[in-house]
Specification:
The protein is 41% helix and 21% strand. It is α/β, with parallel strands linked by helices and 375 residues long.
Length: 375
């Protein structure tokens, strides 16, 4: 079997927030990629949380030509060809996103060729994965935050996640001191706890926007709210500062969705900086590299979880491996996927039910992809 076509599209798809009771419409940018074999078999992959235009250019002009004519089942060989081809650009960022999209398409083809869903192909540890709902967006006021989280809890989700630290170090010219920002966050967390009750887990996510003092202060302010985990609290996922934060307060820490290289996860594990790692298949070099990272974590008896959304692809990693745990049902990410895929798996009593169809088990809507493609 040989690869005869590699193609990527930069997309801008519609999203809405009616699922959480918010009348707000927007658009989300993402990348969609396809790999086709000479037998007509087509696999797909996606990437997100970055400008899709340069990623599409990398796929179409650099990585695609590099793997043309190769066997799509040789995922290790293909991954290293793409890695060394992309290395002159840099080893993470857009390069990692581009590799992720193609690698997912290759695994889709492998599953289709072997007539097996990817989650079973890599281990088949479980056929359903618990999902938590990311619905506590920073644009919501306190009442909206309480409404969105209580609505998702009523829908069967046993955990919700809310954004904190925004604006933070990503907007230093905002003028609002970090101390004031985390005080506001603490108030909002308490409002959510009141809204969802004691039986629903609450996680918080700073998106790498806080420094060590402000993250430490926030942890102590909300520790009595029974926080399940604090995701990516520290600027640049600084491993040494994460390790210090973990020792200074009682809340579990997670990180990794924004990382593109396996060694970053190694350092988190060696320095005992986190309680769980969060490789995301659409960002962290695809399934091939995420399997390496998950195996590394397993050797440290550390679980993996899904941060960064896109549950319909990450469900395979979390279901396939024994140290997989949960999925992020991020409302805007889910809506973006609904715009370009048909018949997506449903959430049943808080769990994502894994598909039995071969490959990734998803059905791309080609008409929608063409409609939302950016010029």
């Amino acid at each position: 079997m040989k690869i005869v076509r590699v193609q990527a599209w930069a997309l801008e798809v519609p999203v809405d927030y009616s699922e959480i009771g918010v009348e707000r419409a927007g658009r989300s940018e993402m990348l969609y990629a396809e790999v086709e074999t000479e037998t007509g078999m087509v696999g797909h992959g996606i990437s997100s949380i970055a400008d899709p235009r340069p990623i599409a250019s990398a796929v179409n002009s650099v990585l695609g030509p590099a793997i043309m004519g190769m066997d799509p089942l040789d995922h290790e060989r293909l991954w290293h060809v793409m890695y060394w081809t992309a290395t002159p650009w840099g080893q993470t960022g857009y390069a990692s996103h581009a590799i992720s999209a193609i690698d997912l398409a290759l695994w889709d083809i492998k599953g289709i060729a072997l007539d097996m869903p990817v989650w079973r192909l890599i281990g088949g540890a479980r056929d359903r994965v618990e999902a938590y709902a990311t619905c506590g967006f920073s644009f919501l006021d306190d009442d909206g935050l309480a409404e969105s989280t209580s609505r998702m809890a009523a829908a069967g989700f046993r955990g919700v996640k809310i954004q904190v630290g925004r604006p933070g170090l990503d907007q230093r010219r905002n003028g609002k001191p970090l101390a004031e920002i985390v005080r506001d966050d603490a108030r909002r967390v308490r409002r959510v706890r009141e809204a969802v009750g004691e039986d629903v887990e609450i996680a918080v996510d700073a998106g790498c926007r806080l420094d060590l003092p402000s993250a430490t202060d926030l942890c102590h302010m909300i520790a009595d709210c029974d926080i399940a985990w604090f995701e990516e609290p520290i600027l640049q996922n600084d491993v040494h500062l994460l390790a210090q934060l973990r020792r200074r307060q009682p809340i579990k820490l997670t990180a990794g969705q924004n990382e593109g290289l396996a060694y970053r996860f190694r350092d988190m594990l060696v320095h005992e900086a986190v309680d769980a790692i969060q490789p995301n298949m659409i960002i962290t070099g695809g399934l091939t590299q995420c399997l390496r990272i998950a195996g590394l974590a397993d050797a440290f008896n550390v679980p993996i979880s899904n941060g960064g959304g896109c549950p319909y692809h990450n469900m395979h990693l979390q279901a396939g491996l024994q140290n997989g745990t949960n999925l992020e049902y991020q409302v805007n990410s889910v809506n973006a996927c609904r715009s370009i895929f048909r018949n997506l798996p449903e959430i049943d009593d808080g769990y994502m039910i894994l598909p039995s169809a071969p490959g990734l088990g998803l059905e791309p809507d080609r008409d929608a992809i063409e409609e939302y493609a950016l010029d």
